[in-house]
Amino acid sequence: MEIEDKSKAEQQEEEQEGAMSFWDHLEILRWALFRSACVLAVIMVGTFIAMPYIFDRFILAPTSNEFFVYRWLNSIGKGVVKLSTDFDVQIININVASQFMTHISTSISLAAVIAFPYFIWEIWKFIEPALFEDEIKHLRPAFFGGTIMFYIGCAIGYTLVFPFTFRFLVEYNLSPNITNQINLQSYIDNFTMLILVMGIVFEMPLLAWLLSLFGIIRKSFLREHKRHAVVILLISAAIITPSGDPFTLMLVFIPLYLLYEMSILVVRDKKREEED
Known about the structure:
The chain has helices at about 1-20, 20-60, 70-75, 100-115, 115-125, 135-170, 185-200, 205-215, 220-225, 225-240, 245-265, 270-275; strands at about 90, 180-185. It is mainly α. The chain has two domains: about 25-200, no CATH class; about 205-275, no CATH class.
């Protein structure tokens, strides 16, 4: 009995010694933020240097009919998709410092997207010590999968959502007496917003799975309210792409609906698990 009491006392002492204070956690967080900022700064130097090349061939690509998605649709969608062959938008600048500030802001945004996996890794390393082994086993693949889904969402935003939204808004004419002149800042704001929004939207399955772990939603709930979800997804697709073209609307709606179906697959049904 004495030996057992001593061993318990020793374990308690070790736990007390190993327990970290609030300031210790704050110090770890500070260093994690510092490392993340350093990584972001290093990548930003590279993106800043390469930005003139990236800007012309990547960011401004949807402004011309030579954009690979437009050419691909024109080649396979004759009679179905009607894209004008003379689409060529000139982006103008009306502020003295706008080009320089856009150079910096786009470099930071691109660097943040590239460094996204590292940010996720730092977050994971910060919260991992506070998790149980079973939670670690489930959350580790979730963090990895969430990163992949983020990049898939950004890719769809770049290749589908932004180009067609941009074309619709540019080609829309309230009056033939009005000439559209697209400002650089307006273009960059819409470009960044739509791509990042799609990247975040593609985290839907991960969010649904995490909510199911805490018992907030169930698989049966998502199945029962699928009709309501379809309506909400259609409205969301219409907001993201304010176009009257059903084809463009479906380009956004189909990925969103597939994400909802994927959420149903990954969500856990707590009631069934408890019965088993």
